[in-house]
Write a structure and sequence with these properties.
By secondary structure, the chain is α+β, with helices and mostly antiparallel strands. The protein has nine helices and nine strands.
């Protein structure tokens, strides 16, 4: 779907639904700021005037900084609760409509990690088999020609986005591309080198079929992989072909963020950025159908 088509549907279906969240957002943002600033002010005053409190009000007031610190921690918990609760309510209301506007895709939050996902990640050899994997946002879709794709935000030490593509009628040999300084789990795969010297400076490439690897990792595909990295704000990308699958790992910060307490719902950028994050994967899936 083009950006213009999405803009029309966004203004018609999504934007009116967003408006009902603005009053709640402003109220909770104000409460959060108020209690955090009050806690900080109390902390500063108790530390600055501690001697005065002890002299005129007794030793009990020596505990005042501790109580102020507890209040500060409480204010942080309140803010975290408001933020998390607001974002989840926003996503549960908006994401289904967003997916409808994007086409044949579905969204889930903290979805169950299916055994098939774990199998694909292990088979891709982009993570060690014992990695503990949890999911946040997940999008699943099918292209017009029937190729299946899935985008999952995986929570490890830092967030990572895993992209799963499954192609009809394909049977690839195992080919892995990963950054030079990243530990590889390629086992018995042979390291190969491409004619693109600059690419070889950035990535290690392993494959059990050198001819196919050279065919797959052509300049056109690498340009699309580069676009993926730019869109997701991640400059560390790994990918693995095997069977009829392509698995891509992107090291990134939080993806698929559509708002928060300190982001007005009238700000169109977050949802348009999520549109771009989904669309760039759709374009990659369609590339393999040509």
């Amino acid at each position: 779907m083009s950006a213009d088509d999405f803009l029309i549907k966004y203004n018609k279906k999504i934007k009116p639904r967003l408006q009902k969240f603005e009053k709640q957002r402003r109220l909770q943002a104000f409460i959060s700021i108020f209690i955090i600033m009050s806690a900080l002010l109390l902390m500063i005053l108790t530390v600055a005037f501690l001697d005065f409190f002890e002299e005129y009000l007794g030793n009990f007031w020596a505990l005042a900084p501790i109580f102020a610190f507890i209040f500060l921690m409480f204010s942080a918990v309140v803010y975290s609760y408001f933020e998390t609760n607001f974002v989840m309510k926003l996503k549960k209301d908006i994401m289904p409509v967003f997916c409808e506007c994007m086409g044949n895709i579905q969204w889930a939050h903290a979805a169950q990690l299916f055994s098939n996902d774990t199998t694909l990640i292990i088979q891709s050899r982009l993570l060690p088999p014992e990695t503990d994997i949890t999911l946040e946002d997940t999008f699943t879709g099918i292209t017009k020609n029937g190729s299946w794709y899935k985008i999952s935000e995986v929570v490890l030490k830092s967030n990572k986005v895993f992209i799963f593509l499954k192609f009809k009628g394909k049977n690839y040999s195992n080919t892995i591309l990963m950054p030079k300084d990243e530990f590889q789990y390629s086992y018995k795969l042979k390291q190969i080198y491409l004619e693109d010297v600059e690419l070889d400076k950035i990535y290690n490439i392993y494959s059990d079929d050198e001819i196919e690897a050279r065919y797959l990792l052509n300049p056109s595909l690498m340009e699309k992989i580069s676009n993926l990295g730019k869109t997701y704000g991640g400059n560390r990308i790994s990918l693995s072909f095997f069977g009829n699958n392509l698995v891509i790992k992107i090291a990134t910060g939080n993806a698929f963020e559509i708002g928060g307490l300190f982001c007005s719902v009238n700000n169109d950028y977050p949802l348009f950025h999520v549109h771009d994050e989904i669309r760039v994967v759709q374009e990659l899936a369609e590339y393999f159908e040509n």
